[in-house]
Amino acid sequence: MRVLLFIAKVWVLDMASVIDELYSVILDRIARRPPNSYTVSLIEKGREYIARKVGEEAIETIIASLTESRDRFVSEVADLIYHLLVLMAINNVSPDDIYKELRRRMK
């Protein structure tokens, strides 16, 4: 049982580091605005567009969970997380803010 808990904690920490790293990349793209960056193209379209994109990705994730393969579902979840991170970045909300809120809810 302890081994499983350890593995689960390592996986969660690794997942958090991936999300933190992606969030840092998003912040860097926003700051540097490299040409041909998808992140920059989203930012230039504005908050409302990004919010709609999050909604679109959420719907695609729901559909994939019900009717498509596991791989397709995983792909849609990744799209949703990425777009949520972009929306968080433009609203000055960090993954740490979300981690803190999730920890608070677990009490």
Automatic annotation (TrEMBL):
It is found in: Cytoplasm. Its EC number is 3.6.1.31. It comes from the Archaea. Pathway: Amino-acid biosynthesis; L-histidine biosynthesis; L-histidine from 5-phospho-alpha-D-ribose 1-diphosphate: step 2/9. PANTHER family: HISTIDINE BIOSYNTHESIS BIFUNCTIONAL PROTEIN, HISTIDINE BIOSYNTHESIS BIFUNCTIONAL PROTEIN HIS7. NCBIfam families: histidine_hisI. This is Phosphoribosyl-ATP pyrophosphatase. It comes from Ignisphaera aggregans (strain DSM 17230 / JCM 13409 / AQ1.S1).
